[in-house]
Backbone:
């Protein structure tokens, strides 16, 4: 089914599309967006990290670099696409960078970010029909083509079309520069030789590259009624090596862009002692989970109702047997991603059984599959510390910093809630698994 054809599910089969875990970008219906989650996320109807971000990026400031933190699956991507829409409505040019598609997250360094920033500015200039000086286009093109020529001398490079002959373009135009960026990105993702080649050149000419960025961003602002461009890096927080993200962001130039820039960032690293080395460089904003239980283990009915509203926008609630949706919501701990994944798995199973509603056995099977995925990320040696969290409300509020917490938060075995009272808890499915194993009492 084409994304543009997706509409609220009226039957089991349609749920496979409506709950696909994609952000609500331009390809998905606006009617799927539920915009009343911030009160239950923050515990304060007047507080919103996204409004704070919008206001900070809409007002010229020297503090232009922002980190957006939050658990994977809490809804950051959807909220960022809504933020993008808000910027565009206010006349501010914006570009979202698909970091997973554009870079190798496992090998990401600050030069990848610098390249993607420059490419994004070129895309904005091209989209807004903003002319760049010929000398700037020539300089960037010449810089990139030299890298391309050196890369293509290696047998490890898999060129996709640009060759040294492209230098013959007289003069090169912005579209040819953008095409070269695509080539360099591809090579850096697929070839270590290419990574080393481009990195060495950028290290030697870092100040020159930053000058390109400043010149292009200033021209964009001039062509957009002095509204600065905004660049948003999506999915940086999904790095398989989250501890390396601090190394990347210690490169202070990433915090010194002359325009607003938003980087997603792994929330687990917020609790690393090393975060102190970048804390003052970036303004950080945290998008909390939707709280569906309280620190004492009781259900949070307000949060459960919010999740019901989100689900009801995508499907008829009659497609769930009695109490099934409540159970799925509570057992997935407020993670929209986990909830949607379980609904898809349960709906697929129900469809194959030939029934018209998700029933208990379908939901239990889906939760079992997700439990296996979560518990595969933790070791038996972690069970004792996890039991302390589960059994002690004081520890839930005051978990000490350290490697254990970082690993558990990255694996999603431990979730953080910031709803007026910062606290942590085991993912409900991890807790149930440990109870079944006799680890928890």
Residues:
């Amino acid at each position: 089914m084409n994304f543009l054809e997706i509409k609220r599910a009226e039957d089991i089969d349609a749920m496979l599309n409506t709950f696909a875990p994609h952000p609500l970008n331009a390809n998905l219906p606006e009617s799927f967006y539920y915009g009343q989650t911030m009160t239950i996320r923050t515990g304060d109807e007047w507080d919103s990290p996204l409004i704070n971000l919008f206001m900070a990026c809409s007002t010229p400031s020297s503090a232009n670099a922002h980190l957006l933190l939050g658990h994977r699956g809490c809804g950051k991507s959807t909220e960022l696409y809504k933020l993008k829409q808000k910027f565009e409505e206010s006349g501010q040019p914006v570009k979202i960078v698909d970091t997973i598609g554009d870079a190798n997250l496992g090998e990401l360094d600050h030069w990848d970010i610098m390249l993607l920033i420059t490419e994004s500015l070129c895309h904005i200039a091209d989209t807004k029909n903003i002319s760049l000086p010929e000398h700037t286009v020539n300089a960037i093109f010449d810089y990139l083509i030299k890298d391309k020529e050196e890369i293509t001398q290696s047998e490890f490079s898999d060129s996709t079309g640009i060759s040294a002959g492209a230098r013959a373009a007289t003069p090169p135009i912005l579209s040819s520069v953008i095409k070269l960026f695509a080539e360099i990105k591809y090579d850096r993702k697929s070839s270590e030789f290419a990574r080393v080649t481009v990195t060495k050149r950028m290290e030697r000419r870092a100040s020159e590259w930053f000058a390109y960025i400043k010149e292009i961003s200033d021209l964009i602002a001039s062509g957009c009624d002095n509204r600065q461009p905004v660049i948003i890096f999506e999915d940086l927080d999904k790095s398989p090596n989250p501890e390396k993200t601090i190394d990347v962001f210690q490169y202070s130039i990433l915090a010194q862009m002359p325009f607003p820039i938003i980087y997603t960032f792994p929330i687990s690293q917020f609790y690393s002692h090393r975060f102190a080395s970048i804390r003052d460089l970036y303004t950080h904003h945290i998008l909390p989970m939707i709280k569906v239980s309280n620190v004492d283990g009781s259900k949070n009915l307000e949060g459960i109702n919010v999740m019901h509203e989100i689900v009801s926008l995508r499907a008829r609630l009659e497609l769930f047997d009695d109490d099934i949706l409540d159970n799925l919501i509570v057992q997935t701990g407020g993670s929209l991603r986990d909830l949607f994944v379980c609904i898809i798995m349960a709906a697929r199973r129900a469809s194959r059984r030939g029934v018209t509603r998700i029933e208990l056995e379908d939901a239990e099977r889906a939760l079992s599959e997700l439990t296996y995925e979560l518990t595969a990320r933790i070791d038996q040696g972690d069970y004792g510390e996890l039991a302390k969290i589960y059994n002690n409300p004081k520890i839930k509020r005051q978990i000490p910093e350290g490697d254990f917490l970082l690993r558990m938060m990255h694996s999603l075995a431990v979730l953080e809630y910031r709803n007026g009272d910062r606290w942590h808890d085991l993912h409900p499915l991890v807790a149930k698994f440990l109870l079944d194993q006799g680890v928890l009492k």
Q: What stands out?
A: The two ends are 47 Å apart (CA to CA). The longest strand covers residues 65-69.
